[in-house]
Here is the input.
Amino acid sequence: MTEIRVLYGTTLIELHGWLLQQSTRLAERFEGPSALAEFSVRGLAGHLRRAMTMVETYLDQPAPAGDPTEDLELLSAS
Here is the structure.
């Protein structure tokens, strides 16, 4: 298992524990607005859930070839 997968798994475990601690507060506010104006707490939770499950898909991809800083240079030039 790669170091990044271990870090990702550890982060998910810690996040899960925090969410369990906050469950009562989250339930009370679930239908209300979140810190992000375009999301309710429910919507933000769904967005977080999707993001958490998609990371493994990205980690399964081979590392890109070439210099990764080239893309940063292109983006910063625009």
In short: The first helix runs from residue 3 to 21. Residues 40 and 60 are 31 Å apart (CA to CA).
